[in-house]
Design brief:
Structural class: alpha/beta
Shape: globular
Number of helices: 8
Number of strands: 7
CATH superfamily: Vaccinia Virus protein VP39
Radius of gyration: 17 Å
Strand content: 15-25%
Order of helices and strands: HHEHEHEHEHEHEHE
Number of domains: 1
Helix content: 25-40%
Length: 244
Amino acid sequence: MTGSRKRVTRVMAEFNSAGDRPMRKIRSFARRSGRMTDGQKKALDEHWEKYGIDYCDKQKNPQTYFNNDAPVNIEIGFGMGENLLSVAQNNPDENFIGIEVHQPAVGHVLNRANDLDLNNLRLINHDAVEIFTHQTLDYSVNSVSIFFPDPWHKSKHHKRRLVSPKFCSLLSSKIKKGGRVYMATDWQHYAEQMLEVFTHNHHFKNLSPNNTYCERMEFRPVTKFEKRGHRLGHGVWDLIFEKL
């Protein structure tokens, strides 16, 4: 999601290069509570019990966090929550989980979720790779959204990118048949990597008519970050893949 470039990424070098070796437990972020506003800190104290999901190493069906059987959609790196809050508010018959490592952003979205009284929204303040690996039951997720992840634009850092063959394979084991992966980036090289990674995974098919990029997703709000990119002449590439 826009506004948070450095998230769920510090673990990616080890994750993407681990091969068949057991992946050691690695934290992908450091909690930066000192940078939080008083309102964000208060939100964590007052609203986490209602909206928060604590990390554990036991695989669960994410529907258990909502006590219903509605489909569960997950957004990785929701930033200030523009998209997450919008889709949760506009789709009350579905459930939504946001994963974000930046604590001030979590505090902000907790406040907004409480203001909007969103009962179909939960938040996780932890690394997405560990959440999907250790805490998410296979074939239990309806969709995954990855909007504007850290591009790690230097060549030597490309191995840190979240969207990789290994992470794509992990998602394929967690998403239900017919489920979808939504992605967007304003870095062309990363867009090309996303396209290549998911095209070469036989568990997914591209929903674009020409098997490349799709039209801008109507449900995805234009954020301040994206507007700034347009002003600077940056392109934006959207992709949708469906689980076979």
